[in-house]
Design brief:
six-stranded mixed β-sheet; alpha+beta; 2-methylcitrate dehydratase PrpD; 423 residues; 8 strands; 2 domains; 60s Ribosomal Protein L30, Chain: A
Length: 423
């Protein structure tokens, strides 16, 4: 039996991480900051300066912002946040934008000076919006996390300031996450504790995957997988996760339940597990418990890496999916730990070069690695300590992956941004 602290902490982590968002979360965070700035200003801004970290530039450049008529970019995200954003809805800030507001967007963008600058700090996640209307000014700063408002200033006076060094919200202690305890928690958690949040994840993420498969979205990776590889459960697992990203990266206005600040990671961690649960005809309770594992393993892997980096977050979520599917097949700690180690050995090093249509293909690759990691161990094969970044012990291997992504890929991140800014 786990102690009460771990049980309460793991439940809190799921509640903090598995939240709804409409659209790619970096442009949505910009729209959220803009909506707060407009509310503080009390008027539609006439000019604005937008200062963002490099990773924000990378992840906003190529995705379509929902409720904009198919437009992209930092200025678009900020402008629609000014015009129609509801700051009380956080990552669903654009959910109530009207047709009239969408129609007003192109004219506002054409007439309003919106200046974008790259932040000079070393922060991975930084958004500062300085807006002006008439004689009044407002400034909003978001740091380290998509909804972490660090400061709001109106006419030079601070009207809100976080009293936390890193985040404005009291987060559950993610250092308590271990694979062994995640598996134990999934096996003993009362389903009532997690059912509501997991039902929402199943409903939202399945709906956008189905939209991705039925509509004309992005590069159509989900549909291509089904057309070329048939209808096996492994193909469907990859196709559903990829199709959700096809739709989401192309501005689909359906919400998703995110994981580790990312809708793509939320879909990758959940949809393959849902597909396999239906194929295996397991109970709804078993699906819930498998989703607890997949989500918490993803969060555990991402905690050491950080919110944004040059390391593709879908890889961590693919490992989580593989872990959850292993549970559905009857695997427990030993089998799940080997699945994770095998999967990270296969795909670690896939770079994040921004949010865009090709994320769907990377998701398919991440799910494939998770499934291969599981199948390897099921057939008596595994990667062993000393094989590259793999070392003895699941937690030690996870830390190696975190060090690779957090420290080793810093220059990769800078080079990716330099390449992107040339285009």
């Amino acid at each position: 039996m786990l102690d009460d602290t771990i049980r309460k902490t793991y439940k809190a982590i799921l509640e903090e991480e598995l939240v709804p968002a409409m659209g790619c979360t970096e442009p949505i965070s910009l729209a959220y900051a803009a909506a707060i700035a407009r509310k503080a200003l009390g008027a539609l801004p006439e000019t604005a300066e937008i200062t963002v970290s490099g990773n924000i530039i990378k992840n906003v450049k190529s995705v379509i912002v929902p409720h904009t008529g198919g437009l992209r970019g930092i200025e678009t995200a900020v402008a629609i946040g000014f015009i129609g954003g509801d700051p009380d809805k956080e990552l669903e800030v654009l959910s109530d934008v009207t047709d009239a507001q969408i129609a007003a967007l192109p004219g506002y963008l054409a007439q309003t000076p919106l200046t974008v600058r790259q932040a000079q700090s070393d922060r991975v996640f930084e958004i500062v919006i300085d807006a002006k209307a008439g004689e009044h000014t407002a400034s909003v700063t978001i740091l380290d996390d998509h909804t972490n408002v660090e400061r709001i200033v109106r006419d030079g006076q601070i009207v809100y300031r976080s009293n936390k060094v890193q985040t404005s919200r009291e987060q559950a202690d993610r250092s308590l996450l271990t694979v062994r305890n995640i598996v134990a928690y999934a096996q003993e958690v009362p389903i009532a504790d997690v059912q509501e949040i997991l039902d929402r994840q199943i409903q939202y993420n399945t709906a956008i995957a189905q939209e991705g498969l039925s509509g004309d979205w992005g590069a159509g990776i989900g549909k291509i997988l089904l057309k070329t590889n048939g209808n096996s459960v492994s193909t469907r697992a990859k196709a559903y996760a990829a199709a959700g990203s096809d739709a989401r990266m192309s501005g689909c206005e359906l919400p998703v339940v995110i994981n580790s600040g990312s809708g793509n990671q939320g879909m990758t961690a959940s949809l393959p597990v849902i597909v396999y649960a239906r194929e295996l005809n397991v109970s709804q309770e078993q699906l819930y418990r498998a989703l607890v594992i997949s989500n918490l393993v993803t969060i555990h892997l991402k905690t050491g890496i950080g919110c944004l980096s040059a390391y593709c977050g879908a890889i961590s979520a693919g490992c989580g999916a593989g872990a959850g599917i292993t549970y559905l097949y009857g695997g427990r700690f030993t089998e799940i730990a080997h699945t994770i180690v095998n999967a990270v050995a296969i795909n670690s090093g896939v770079v994040c070069d921004g949010a865009k249509a090709s994320c769907a293909a990377k998701i398919a690759s991440a799910v494939e690695a998770g499934l291969l990691g599981m199948n390897m161990y099921m057939h008596g094969s595994e990667f062993r300590g000393g094989d590259g970044i793999v070392t003895t012990g699941i937690e030690e291997t996870i830390e190696n992956v975190a060090a690779l992504a957090r420290n080793g890929m810093k220059e990769t991140d800078r080079e990716i941004l330099r390449i992107i800014l040339k285009q």
